[in-house]
Amino acid sequence: MPVELDPVKSAQKRSDFVGIYQLKDLSRLHEFVLSDYGQVEVNLKCTYDEQRLPIMLIDAKTAVEVSCERCGGNLTLDISVNATYTPNLKSTDEDLIPDEYSVIDVNEYGLLDFKALIEDELLLAIPFVPKHPVNECAITEQDMSWGELDKAAQEKPANPFDVLKSLKNPK
């Protein structure tokens, strides 16, 4: 897979790329995963859409191992990313870009760091608080309860504004 890519020239050539990145080569991802063993399978298709906008259709898949925030155990996440990008060109009217496209900036040479783009997409696909499903987690629902409320705390007043009245008119 290319590390840098010119999206306009690649669209003109109708380039298709199929390849892999090793997880160990994605340094920013290391902060969030437990193991850098594995690879990211990437499919990239560069073409033009109906409006003659150069687009990149990206499909990336991998499995990463993270820590479950509930039990602290290892959790394997299957991550799949599907995105459509168009480069931010001076000649493009931003109002004509469809909402489902993500706009990507290119450097002064018209290139973008494709490997970093894939890494960004993978980082965004990892849940903010990764957890096993409740029925698969080492911590059960009973382990998550920290005592019981007394009956007075469980009873709600008939009118929620009664509490405010009692504050206004102390007895």
Task: Describe what you observe in this structure.
The chain is an alpha+beta fold and 171 residues long. It has one domain (4-144). Helix content is 17%, strand content 30%. It is built from four helices and seven strands, in the order βαββββββααα. The strands form two sheets. The chain has a five-stranded mixed beta sheet with strand order 2-3-4-5-6. The protein has a two-stranded antiparallel sheet with strand order 1-7. A hairpin with a 5-residue loop joins strand 3 (39-48) and strand 4. The protein is elongated, with a radius of gyration of 25 Å. It starts with a strand and ends with a helix.
Features:
single chain; alpha+beta; 5-stranded mixed β-sheet; 4 helices
Protein topology:
Elements: E1 4-5, H1 7-12, E2 16-22, E3 39-48, E4 54-67, E5 74-87, E6 102-104, E7 112-113, H2 114-125, H3 151-154, H4 162-168
Parallel strand pairs: 5-6
Antiparallel strand pairs: 1-7, 2-3, 3-4, 4-5
- Sketch the topology as an H/E string, one letter per element: EHEEEEEEHHH
- Please bin the fraction of helical residues: 10-25%
Give the total of domains. Answer: 1
Could you give the count of β-strands? 7
Largest sheet, in brief, is: 5 strands, mixed
Radius of gyration: 25 Å
- Describe the strand arrangement of the main beta sheet, using strand numbers: 2-3-4-5-6
| Alpha-beta classification | alpha+beta
Contiguous low-pLDDT stretches (5 residues minimum) are: none
What's the tally of helices? 4
Q: What is the percentage of strand-forming residues?
A: 25-35%
Termini separation (Å)?
76 Å
Rounded mean pLDDT is 87
Tertiary shape: elongated
